[in-house]
């Protein structure tokens, strides 16, 4: 059995455009589908479900699941109060490994326009970030991940909007983008602006600008002036609660149709 990757590498040259991720979904020898990402020094192969590396850390589906188990099963201190649980260095190293794996797979899914899969992987990364924020062992470690929260939220908002466009629901796409912009802006205010190191420049404004341009493009292409949610916000702001109730009914009916 050949152990080199010559056939794969020679048949798939590494010549990406700037910012392009070279990815493909292929059938493995045993019949399962796997993701492959072409990198300068070879090829990465990832599983499409569960952990990208196909392992079950400590018997759990993901390392995040294991960390949640550790935090939930900590011992009880005298008096019945649970002591605070924090990640040790091994936890941090293994969490970093999972962050990196999900980043590669998220970028591959976006490249392949598998936005539903990208959305799921973004949600996993955000949940892992939330856990690290609560249980990280020091501020520097937490900061090393929080600085990328805006980018992950950006990818999530893109994926969510593109799913809505594929389903021909432009209003849902706009609402998803507006929600994403608000979350990134909130992160900007609550985390980046609180940093003592004033030289640390937040990458969030350009991300918000890109989402705003996407929103404007959708409004133009689909002739959407105001979504139902925007109309609801305006009705509440002017205290027109009867109109707000009618719009809520329309939103619920819209959501019911979308689930069918």
From TrEMBL:
<protein>
    <submittedName>
        <fullName>UvrB/uvrC motif protein</fullName>
    </submittedName>
</protein>
<feature type="domain" description="UVR">
    <location>
        <begin position="222"/>
        <end position="257"/>
    </location>
</feature>
<dbReference type="Pfam" id="PF02151">
    <property type="entry name" value="UVR"/>
</dbReference>
<dbReference type="InterPro" id="IPR001943">
    <property type="entry name" value="UVR_dom"/>
</dbReference>
């Amino acid at each position: 059995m050949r152990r080199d990757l010559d056939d794969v590498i020679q048949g798939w040259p590494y010549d990406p455009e700037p910012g392009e991720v070279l990815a493909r979904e292929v059938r493995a020898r045993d019949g399962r589908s796997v993701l492959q990402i072409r990198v300068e020094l070879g090829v990465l192969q990832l599983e499409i479900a569960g952990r990208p590396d196909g392992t079950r850390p400590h018997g759990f589906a993901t390392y995040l699941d294991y960390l949640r188990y550790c935090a939930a099963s900590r011992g009880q201190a005298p008096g019945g109060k649970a002591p605070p649980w924090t990640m040790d260095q091994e936890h941090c190293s293994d969490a970093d490994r999972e962050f990196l794996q999900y980043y590669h797979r998220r970028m591959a899914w976006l490249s392949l326009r598998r936005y539903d899969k990208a959305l799921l992987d973004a949600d996993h990364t955000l949940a892992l970030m939330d856990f690290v924020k609560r249980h990280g062992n020091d501020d520097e470690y937490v900061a090393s991940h929080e600085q990328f929260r805006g980018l992950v939220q950006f990818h999530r908002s893109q994926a969510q909007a593109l799913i809505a466009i594929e389903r021909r629901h432009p209003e849902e796409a706009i609402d998803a983008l507006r929600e994403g912009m608000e979350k990134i802006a909130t992160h900007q205010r609550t985390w980046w602006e609180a940093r003592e190191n004033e030289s640390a420049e937040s990458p969030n404004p350009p991300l918000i600008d890109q989402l705003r341009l996407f929103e404007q493009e959708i409004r133009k292409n689909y002739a959407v002036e105001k979504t139902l949610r925007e109309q609801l916000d305006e009705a509440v702001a002017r205290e027109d609660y009867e109109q707000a109730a009618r719009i809520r009914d329309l939103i619920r009916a819209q959501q019911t149709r979308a689930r069918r």
